[in-house]
From TrEMBL, chain A:
A Pfam entry, by short name: BPD_transp_1
Organism for this UniProt entry: Seonamhaeicola algicola
Protein origin, superkingdom: Bacteria
Name of this protein: ABC transporter permease
Main location class: membrane
Key words, A-Z: Cell membrane, Membrane, Transmembrane, Transmembrane helix, Transport
GO-annotated biological processes: transmembrane transport
Domain ABC transmembrane type-1 as annotated: residue spans: 161-353
TrEMBL record, chain B:
Record protein name field: ABC transporter ATP-binding protein
Main location: membrane
Keyword Membrane among record annotations: yes
InterPro entries membership: AAA+_ATPase, ABC_transporter-like_ATP-bd, ABC_transporter-like_CS, ABC_transporter_ATP-bind, NO3_transporter_ATP-bd-like, P-loop_NTPase
Superkingdom of origin organism: Bacteria
Protein source organism: Seonamhaeicola algicola
Protein's membrane topology: Peripheral membrane protein
Localization (cell): Cell membrane
PANTHER family: NITRATE ABC TRANSPORTER ATP-BINDING PROTEIN, TAURINE IMPORT ATP-BINDING PROTEIN-RELATED
Keywords: ATP-binding, Cell membrane, Membrane, Nucleotide-binding, Transport
Amino acid sequence: MKQSITLGKVTKFMGLGFLTTLKDLFTGKLDKEDFKSFLRKVVVPIVSILLFVGLWHMGAKTLYNIEADFKINKALEERGQAAADAEAACIASGNVTCQPNSLPSPAQVWDSYKSLLRDHSTISADKAAFKEKTAALNEKRIAEGKNPIVYTGRPSFVDQIFRSLKTVFAGFLLALVIAVPLGIFIGLSPTLKSAFNWFIQIFKPVSPVVWYLLVFMIVKTLLIDSSEDSSFTISFISVGLCSMWATLVNTAMGVSSVDKDYINVAKVLKLGTFQKIFKVILPSSLPLIFTGLKITISVGWMVLIAIELLAQSPGLGTFVWEEFQNGANDSNAKIIVAMFVIGIIGFLLDRLMLTIQNSVSFVKTDAI
Amino acid sequence: MSTITTNTTTKGYVENGIFPSNDVMLDLKNLKKVYPTPKGDYVVLENLNLQIRKEEFVTIIGHSGCGKTTMLSMIAGLNNISGGNISVLGKHIKGPGPDRGVIFQAPSLMPWMTSLQNVLLGVNQVFPHATKAQRNDIAKYYLQKVGLEDAFHKKAADLSQGMQQRVGIARAFAIKPKVLLLDEPFGMLDSLTRGELQDILIEIWNKEKITAVMITHDVDEAIFLADRVVMMTSGPRAKIGDVLSIDFERPRTRKAVLEHNDYYKYRKHLIDFLEH
């Protein structure tokens, strides 16, 4: 009993309340009163997911058939009946060389997902073997003051995910470090607000691509002497600059709209400026600051893909772009896998922020 | 009505008159408040004169919107003075300060702090040279006084309205102000809780005897708590309409007050004023 209360609290805290309902189902604690909410919270989502997969399957099949018919007809027109029959037979046999290139079906995507995981374990094994092999040599090289030999093989899909996460967190930290203090100053001072307002209004809607180009222009010059790859630096700065606006605006709004009662209390008690900011204004604007930070991390994750793609910085964006250029028969399926991974990670990042928000702020926010 | 006024006059002072200056804690002279509007100035208060003596508890009643709260927030220093002046112990006030503690209508606690932290916020400010333990003791003493000894470490957001207002009372007394300003502090509470809080307030006040000015809409509350009830005329250009001395002995109990012969006379006086 006690444990279930804790679990319930934790999952609700993290915006994952449906997990409790699911647990109650398996432990048989669900009574009739709860059954309706069980239907709504667990059954309805599962049914909608199944419906979605079914529609996707049928849609993919239709698109596949259109492509296949087109191929056969083309063969018929250009090379006659025999070629068309051969084409049809080839497609039916499942031979990879003549498969129509259309929207992959759920089953194909699942297969690609498994193959990406297999690929990851192969590469990890390879890496481990490489490390073992070069361990002794590297020790010697370090002792001699030389750079150790590093693994330069192709990154696996999982490696790309972690690269992307690293980029988005670096970008998020940059946004946090710039936007929160700036937002506080803007919120506190009407003068600063009018100084910065035009700036915010103009730069907020600028597209990630343009931010990338701007950052590229600047960083390229700044790192002109460096032989290191600047793509990571450029992409995380671009992500930070694209995504910081929500935090900036929300922080400024939160700080400038602190409840008048709190300000009056601070005035009556004659709190000093620092105390007023840290004991009254900041805590009371935390909910809005966190709303901004939540938007920032979502926007950052969303623009990251486009920016990585442009910057050729390793990560999911590059992965998607390479698969698109690659054009292998399972490339499309891998792109869809990446799409789901991006979506799920975005969701988890949002929940992570919600959890942090609920642990530091006095207003408990429910998940939407 | 006239009989009561005569009564008080014979006791040696005049309603709304001039007291010996070393006896006066709070002095409002020709106070004026004007809000500029597009259609010209709107005069809320004009020619408002009021003297409140040391260790006196004054309640202020008047119709909604007559400017009671404006007057109180001017005394608190949260609202600018358009004309005349306000002085505490003979010194004109400039802006807000902890010598005038305020209990707001909404409890106005920082919801992210515990009740102890809320009280300490003021205590730390007023007693910067006391040790941490001493300041803690002061805060805890007043929280005990308002009956919150079990809720030191509860977040203000988790307390009921009544409990929050208790913290508000503790916070105001803990900074040991010269004047305590109460802006309808129990207006948002149910009548049972209101009664409890009135008892708590008057119990602490009996001990501390801090000069208090309290706005209320409740005639019974006004009589039960006050040494004098100040009636304000309806705005615009509101001023002091009448002052009624309540000559019950202190410490008072609710029962004794209700059973006192003068109680209904006072009550009738106030209601007559409000209805005209």
